Amino acid sequence: MTNTFLDSIKVRRSIYALDKNVSVEDSKIEEIIKDAVKYSPSSFNSQSSRAVILLGENHEKLWNIVEDTLRAIVPAENFAATEEKVGSFRAGYGTVLFFEDTAVIEGLQENFALYADNFPVWSEQSSGIAQHSVWVALANAGIGASLQHYNPLIDDAVKAEWNIPASWNLRAQMPFGNIVQEAGEKEFIDDADRFRVFK
Question: Which coarse location class applies to the principal site listed for this UniProt protein (predicted)?
Answer without folding.
Answer: cytoplasm
